Each structure stands twice: as C-alpha cells, then as structure tokens.
Amino acid sequence: MPLSLSLGQSSAISSEAARFLQNVPTIPFAGVLSPFIARPSRVPSMRAQFQKGEDVVEENIIAKYNLSVNTITLGDVPVLVISPPKPTDPSRIIYNVHGGGFMLGTARDRTALLFAAEMNMIVYSVDYTLAPEAKYPVAQNQCLTVYSELIQKFDPQHILGLSSSAGVPLIIAVLNRARSEKLPMIAGLALFAPATDISGAGDSLTFNESRDVMPPILSLELVRQNYLGTADPKDPLVSPIFAEYGPHFPPTVMITGTRDVMMSGAVRFYWKLREVKVQVEILIMEGMWHGFNWEPDLPEAIQVRSAVRKFLQELIK
Amino acid sequence: MPLSLSLGQSSAISSEAARFLQNVPTIPFAGVLSPFIARPSRVPSMRAQFQKGEDVVEENIIAKYNLSVNTITLGDVPVLVISPPKPTDPSRIIYNVHGGGFMLGTARDRTALLFAAEMNMIVYSVDYTLAPEAKYPVAQNQCLTVYSELIQKFDPQHILGLSSSAGVPLIIAVLNRARSEKLPMIAGLALFAPATDISGAGDSLTFNESRDVMPPILSLELVRQNYLGTADPKDPLVSPIFAEYGPHFPPTVMITGTRDVMMSGAVRFYWKLREVKVQVEILIMEGMWHGFNWEPDLPEAIQVRSAVRKFLQELIK
Question: Looking at the complex, does the CB of residue A193 fall below 8 Å from at least one CB of chain B?
C-alpha cells in the first residue's frame, strides 16, 4: 500500500517530491510486527539492504564533486575525513554525526558528503560503533572523544556541527557533556530531522504515523531492543529534550517537514532553546518527510540546504 | 466523539491545553453534512451561537485590563478603537483585521483586545461587513479604505498589522493593493493561524482533519457558499499564497500549531516571503490548534504572544 497523497497535498509540493512519496513502501501491520522486525538478529540484513541503496547515492555524490574520503583515527575512534578538491579555508571544518537509528548508516553519510561539496569545507565524520554491537553510551563516548580532539586541532569557533536523526541526541549529549567538562562550544549546529525525544512523546509521532518513510513504532522498537540497554529514554543524555540549556549553547538551525514523524521533536526543541536565548531557527518544509533534506536533487532539499548554508556561513565569517 | 489525544501527545503539551482538546466537540459525518451546515440560511444562528461564547471572553478581557472600546468611522467604514488606559505612545498604533471565516466575529476580537492590553497600544480594528450579506471583495475594499486613512493619520512605520485566520487574506490583499497604488507599507505584521490558501491545497488540511477545532471541509464549504461568489479561490487577491511578493513587504511573524488545519498555509507562506528576502519568522507550537493563540490564559498562548510582541516591538522602536 503506498502512502496517502491527495490532490491538495501533491499540489503544494514539487512533482519530484510527489513521485518520491508515491514510491515509499509501507509496512503492513507495523504496529503488530515491529517487535519482531526490530530484533537484534535482524539488524545485519536490514543494515546490508539499507547500505546497498546508500552506497549508490554516496558514490554518485563523491564522483560528481570529486570528493576525497580518507579514514583517520582521533583518540582511537575512526573518523572519515571528507574533502572537496580545494576547500575554501582548511582551518574551518565540519564535525558530522550521522543518523540511522544508532544501527544503520556510516560516517560516509549523504549529509557529510553534500555539505563537504556544497559548503566547500572539510568534514570530519565520526564512524561510531553501531548498535546492537555497541549499546548506549558507547557511540556517545566516541563522539565526545572526537569532539575533544577537534577542538584542540581547530579553533572551536571555526567548527560547525551537523547531525541527522539519531545523530542528533549524540551530538547534543556531546555538547552538554563538553559544557559540564568546561570544554569550549563550537560555532553552530544544523540538526536534520532531529530525534530529540526517544521516549515516544510528541504530536507528530501520531499524526505522521503511516505518512512518513518509516513507522514510528518500528523506530522506537529498534532503539529499545538494540541501543538503549538499561538506559532510561527520558535521561537528558539520551533524549535531549529533557536536558537543560543556557545561552552558551551554539546557534542552531533545525530542519524538518510536515510529514516527518520527528517534527514535534524539532518544534519542541526550538522552543526549549529559544526560551534560554539561544539563536535558533526552524526550517519546516511543506509535505516533506523524515530526512527529505539529504536527497541530492529534490527541489525542496536543495532549497533547505541553501537556507542551512546561509545560517551556518554567517557563524564562521 | 472527542478529539483523539494519546498519552504521548498530551505529555508534550500543557495540562490546560490537553483539557481544552478533550472538550472540543467533533461534528459527526462532517464530510457529508458540511454542504448543508454551511448554507447561507444557517449563518445567522451559527453567528449568534459563536458570539455568545465570545462575548463572555471579550468582556472579561476588557474588564481585566480596563480597556475602552469606541466606534468611529474612517472613510465611511466602521472601526473599533480599543485603548488601554494609558497607552505607552499614542502615535504608535495597531491595525487589526479579525478572523471568523468572513462570516463570524466582530472587530472586538480577542486578539485586538489582548494586544491592546499586552502591548499597551491603541488598536484600530476594522468592523468589515460579513458574508453572506457582503461577498468578496466588499470586506477587502473596506479594509483597504481603513488602511488608507490610517497611513495618513499616522506614520506608516509606526503602524503594526495584526490579523487572524480569514483576516489574513484580507490584510495581505490590502498590502498588495496598497503596493500597486504606491501607498506606503506599515512597519510589520503578525498573522495568526493564517488562511493563506483557500483553494483547499496543503498537507495540514488532510493530516489535521478530525484533529482541529473545526473540520476543514466545513470551513471551505462556508467560504465557498457564503463569501466567494464568482471569485476564483486561486486569485492572488483571494488566496495570498498565489500572489507575488518582494522585499518591500513588511517584516512578518506567523503563528500556528501542529494541530492547526492551516499550518501548511503558514509554512508555505513563510518560504514564499523568505525567498524574496522579507524578514519573516514562523512560530509553530507543539500540539496547538487553529487559533490557540487567542486563549487568554493558556500557557502556550501566553508564550507565543510574548514571542510575537518581541518580534513586533523591535520594528517600531
């Protein structure tokens, strides 16, 4: 069964976006089947299938922009260094934490590649250990290690942070722990389709059920069975919506769409930061799904990435 | 049948908001019955019932803030002048166009009263003629007449515009026509639950069907049968999403919620203005319905009105 898309809905988005939505497969009986689909034993095949599709897209971006991709280690953590042929200023860099529900994806994610190309900057993308092989807080510790190394190698105010979906609780926990350890903040953040609350709260998890690329119940079940271990989803270091913030937090732009199951997490986090006087912007796109922003050629994705660049470039001028 | 409200949804909003949603009556068989409910002959009773509830709230606000409310005429159009006891600066004023689907409400609307009180400013609120007694473009012409008078009496850069729901296409058409007539723009705009597209397009009309205070099909049917006449809903002076804008357009803040049937209209209009370099901000509140902002004591409404004041006050400093 395809996702529902009325004439009134498709007339308010690009024809490319409408075609994308018409091709999203839905999972029948997701509510009943999710606990089984999400079992740790099923993760390797899910990962292989996901990566097969991603590899094609990633290699196209690398070829199109002539990017170089090299693995280094920082404090024993593997990090992918993605570079355009002639970065505008090698002293200004991006720190990227990829998404994928803590279980899927690699440091060579589309966002890392697209921003290396489109901002003409070098990206350091953390290749953290996935779940279920590593449970909370292994990946978070690895991301903090890389952060600590990068702020020594570069002027923290020349570093921009990017993260997507499940990468968002990782990068925000890193910043909150860095703050506790009196480490400096970086210049700014872009959070794509942010998973700020993995406790299951929020309006969009309900209204975008059966409207987004993946059923929220499956996402939550995958995280519960594979990643959380004994951690409480309401722990402020697990779900950043429950942490406290202050004006020291870096200027932040958040990107979501009206079909994104995590839209409410972005909306709520916007207000959380705004109320403590953090410079914050929310970019919500009509009819767009979880992660629409990393489609290389989708008009809405191109438009939103341009707005994100505008926000970030102001911060490292 | 009450509106649906899961535990995950209610845990992300105030308890006051959850109580409000639990008390919203739904209209059974709205899809089938709307053409009959929306008939012109039924408008007077609908209006009387609506106003009965509003009168109580409005009179409470007037008493609480000791507001004065007087009717004047500007260019033969009745205008309500709402004033706090000691306005901060009588040379800086608000121009208000109320909502109510072109059929309901009066110039003494909650937003006019609340902003007179909370911004301590004098509000000029247009008492335009309602539909079906007057069809398109009578009300729009009246609003333009009042605009033309106000920009002569006051420095246009000392005037802020407010409008709600169906008041939004009126105030924007006024600005677009004023621009064509080479009249000056005002200093800024706040658009609450904006009806920027009354052609029936947009994602939120679908996903917030049965989740908001009124079925979208009934709103559209009321407008069609009572207001539009022979006008095309895609006419740029009818639905502002179809008009062209430029950087001359006043700085604008838009207010909506994730349950608002008109959220997509706000989201789309945000991008429309942003892309032509208008200063624009969108304030989206988690779980909030169409017009939540005019609840006097709702925590989310208080919070968003405070953010709106902050935006507007910067513009007339």
Answer: no
B267 vs A274: CB contact, 8 Å cut-off?
no
Q: Comparing C-alpha atoms, which of B317, B256, B312 is closest to residue B94?
A: B312
Average pLDDT over residues B28-45: 92
Q: What is the pLDDT of residue A28?
A: 84
Q: What is the pLDDT of residues B16-28, one digit of tens each?
A: 999 999 999 888 8
In chain A, which residue's Cα lies nearest the Cα of B203? A9
CA pair distance B30, B27, nearest whole angstrom: 5
So what's the ipTM on this one?
0.95
Rounded to whole angstroms, how far apart are CA atoms A253 and A283? 7
Chain B interface, best mutation among A207, A234, A288, A300, by max B CB count within 10 A: A207
C-alpha span between A251 and A280 (Å, rounded): 6
Average pLDDT, integer, range A195-210: 94
For the entire predicted model, the pTM comes to 0.96
Cβ partners under 8 Å of residue A52, min gap 6 = none
Nearest-CB residue to A202 (from B197, B204, B286): B286
Tokens representing A212 are 């987004």
Average pLDDT over residues B250-276: 98
Q: Pick the residue from chain B with its C-alpha nearest to A264.
A: B286
